[in-house]
Design a protein that fits this description.
With 315 residues, the chain is an alpha+beta fold. The chain has seven helices and 18 strands.
Length: 315
C-alpha cells in the first residue's frame, strides 16, 4: 500500500494493532496502527509467508476466486497476486504468485481478508468508517467511492474523532451495549479530496502504488476501549441538495444493516448468514439508530452532510 513498503521485507516481522488484537505480519500493513504495547506480548493473529494450496481438501463452497470449508477455512486465489489462506480467524498464510509481494497485497490483507477474519471470529464487520460524535460511535456506511473516508475527514476537521476507516468491527455478543471496536485514525483519501480539504500531499504516504491515493492521519493514537455504537448511517451519494438525514425503521433499517455488511458472500459461505440476520434485532434493542444520509455531489455536499450529522438529535 505504500510505495517503498508495498512488498514487505522478507524475513522481517512487524507487529500491528488490529482492533485491540496483536497481529504479527511478514508483510507491511501501513493501513494498520503499529503495536505499541510490550513487544513480548503474544500475537493473537499471525500473517505469514508460506505455501498455500491451490484448492481446499474438502471445500463445501466454491466461488470463482474463493473457497470455504466449514466456518473456519477460507481460501482466496487472485491471479497475478497470489493465494491467501485464512484459518479460524487467527492464522493467515500468504503465497505471492511471483516471489516479491505485489503492491496490492497489503490492501487485500487489511481490507477483505480482515473482514473475513472478523466473520470467522464471530464479530460483525461493516463497510464503514467510524467517527465519534458526542461521545458515541457513528458508522458511516457505503460502497466503494461512497465518500465514507472523505466525510470522516470533514468531521475530523471539525473536531470529531476518527476511530476506524473502511471497516467498522461491531461486537454485539452478549454485551449490555453494542460496541464499535477502535481500528485506527488513518484515512485513505484521493488527491482531489485532499485538495478540497486544503491538505497538501507533500510528505503524505501513498496508500496505493502508482495511484493518487494517500494516508491522512486524523489524530494521535487510538483509544484502547471500544465505543458504544450509536448509529449506522447509510450514505447515498449524488442526491439533490440540500443534504438530508432520514431515520430508518423496521424493514428499511434491517435492509440498511445488511447492505452495509463487509464481504457478504464469503460471510454466507462461512455460515454467518443466520448470525448476521440475528444482529439486527440485537442492535435495535440496544438502541442503535439507523439513518439514510442523502449527500449532494462535491465537497459542499459532504460539508452539508457533516452538518446534518452534528445536528442530529440524540436518541
Amino acid at each position: 500500500m505504500i510505495q517503498a513498503l508495498a512488498g514487505g521485507v522478507h524475513g522481517t516481522t512487524r507487529s500491528y494493532r488490529l482492533c485491540g488484537l496483536k497481529l504479527d505480519s511478514d508483510f507491511d500493513l501501513p493501513a494498520l496502527p503499529e503495536w505499541d504495547d510490550p513487544a513480548e506480548a503474544p500475537a493473537d493473529v499471525s500473517c505469514r509467508r508460506g505455501v498455500v494450496p491451490s484448492c481446499l481438501k474438502q471445500p463445501d463452497y466454491i466461488a470463482p476466486i474463493f473457497q470455504t470449508s466449514g466456518a473456519g477455512e477460507y481460501l482466496l486465489v487472485l491471479p497475478g497476486t497470489g493465494r491467501i489462506l485464512l484459518r479460524a480467524g487467527n492464522d493467515i498464510t500468504v503465497e505471492p504468485e511471483f516471489g516479491p509481494a505485489p503492491s496490492n497485497l497489503s490492501t487485500i490483507l487489511a481490507g477483505p481478508i480482515q473482514a473475513v477474519l472478523w466473520h470467522q471470529r464471530g464479530l460483525l464487520p461493516l463497510h464503514a468508517s467510524v467517527v465519534v460524535i458526542k461521545g458515541r460511535a457513528v458508522a458511516l456506511c457505503g460502497d466503494g467511492a461512497a465518500g465514507k473516508s472523505t466525510l470522516a475527514a470533514v468531521l475530523a476537521a471539525q473536531g470529531q474523532r476518527v476511530i476506524a476507516d473502511d471497516i467498522c468491527v461491531v461486537d454485539a455478543r452478549n454485551n449490555a451495549d453494542v460496541l464499535a471496536l477502535p481500528g485506527g485514525a488513518r484515512l485513505q483519501l484521493w488527491r482531489d479530496a485532499l485538495a478540497e480539504l486544503g491538505v497538501a500531499t507533500d510528505g503524505l504516504k501513498r496508500a496505493l502504488e502508482h495511484k493518487e491515493r494517500y494516508f491522512l492521519d486524523c489524530g494521535i493514537g487510538i483509544p484502547f476501549e471500544p465505543y458504544k455504537l450509536a448509529a449506522i448511517v447509510r450514505l447515498a451519494r449524488n442526491a439533490l441538495p440540500p443534504a438530508r438525514l432520514n431515520r430508518l425503521r423496521g424493514a428499511q433499517a434491517a435492509d440498511a444493516l445488511y447492505d452495509c455488511v463487509h464481504s457478504p458472500r464469503p460471510a454466507r459461505a462461512l455460515r454467518r448468514a443466520q448470525p448476521i440476520f440475528a444482529a439486527f434485532p440485537r442492535l435495535a434493542s440496544a438502541g442503535v439508530e439507523f439513518w439514510r444520509l442523502m449527500v449532494p455531489e462535491g465537497m459542499a455536499g459532504l460539508r452539508q452532510a457533516a452538518a446534518q450529522l452534528l445536528a442530529a438529535p440524540e436518541g
